[in-house]
Amino acid sequence: SSIGEIAPKFKGCKWFTLDDLRKASDNFSSNHLIGVGGYGKVYKGQLHTGELVAIKRAEKESFQGLEEFRTEIELFSRLHHKNLVNLIGFCTDDGQQMLVYEFMPNRTLRDHLYASNTAEQALNWKTRLSIALGSAKGLEYLHELADPPIIHRDVKSSNILLDENLVAKVADLGLSKLAPTCSDEKTYSSVQVKGTLGYLDPEYYAYHQLSAKSDVYSFGVVLIEIITGKQPIDNGSFIVKEIKESVAWGGVASLLSFVDKRLLDETTVEQVKKYFRLALQCVEDSGQDRPKMNEVVKKLEEIIKLQE
């Protein structure tokens, strides 16, 4: 059966024609281009209703089988959470593979942390904490509440998008994997390691054992980025390694020197120590020593209470 026949089964997910999306993006003009990745290009578009969208158009080289593409749409059209980017629809005309998402005007967390132009507002500490909590809740939903559970596999600061109110939404579930369903077998082997250097769970990298704890590791790296304003791999050195070495020598107190200078007036020592302890738990070498995402959410809520 063609995808058109099964389209109505995707609840709340629209089936767009190629023409719809051409019109929305001014024929995929370079003026509308907002992102380029391994899979293809992302364009900003405006539907005839006036709604702004992001159109993710796969290049031929990264096409999946129609069956896989269908599965992905079916899966993501069922996910609804305020901290996940919402899939609005798809297009498969002329053998295209396009996904249409809600548009996020404030781009990515990464853009804000490393903005070279000063016009980009440096996020204050309170906002950074709320972005950390929002993205943690999005991942908690994928791991614990989605049915079946989902492992994201590519958690990083450029996959955390910000809406007009700087609310965080986890994006780019393209690499994600369904978690294994039998409850005792929470890890499974994956032939091809997927993800981004600097964020990769060392256990997954070494043994190809993937679990929800792999996302927790990557999220721990994001937590470190949020408080330090440093990229995971900075001038050839790995920030996680630097931080672990610092703690080994000088305890958690030694980490105060890593805090982003723009945040110094807004943070308290107690809060920073708690935050770093949580980040360090998330980046433990062994998955079983890392917390689950729901525990990360609770800890972040406690840290935010200290702010009040």
From TrEMBL:
TM helices/strands, residue ranges: none
Reaction catalysed by this enzyme: L-seryl-[protein] + ATP = O-phospho-L-seryl-[protein] + ADP + H(+); L-threonyl-[protein] + ATP = O-phospho-L-threonyl-[protein] + ADP + H(+)
CDD domains with a match to the protein in the record: STKc_IRAK
One GO BP annotation of this record: regulation of innate immune response
Domain Protein kinase, first and last residues per copy: 28-304
Protein name: non-specific serine/threonine protein kinase
Pfam families: PK_Tyr_Ser-Thr
UniProt EC number: 2.7.11.1
Major location category of this protein: membrane
Protein's UniProt keywords contain Membrane: yes
Chain sites annotated for binding ATP: K56
Recorded family membership: Belongs to the protein kinase superfamily.
Compartment list: Membrane
InterPro entries hit by this protein: Kinase-like_dom_sf, Prot_kinase_dom, Protein_kinase_ATP_BS, Ser-Thr/Tyr_kinase_cat_dom, Ser/Thr_kinase_AS
PROSITE patterns linked: PROTEIN_KINASE_ATP, PROTEIN_KINASE_DOM, PROTEIN_KINASE_ST
One CC-aspect GO term: membrane
Signal peptide: none
GO function terms (MF aspect): ATP binding; protein kinase activity; protein serine/threonine kinase activity
SMART domains attached to this UniProt entry: S_TKc
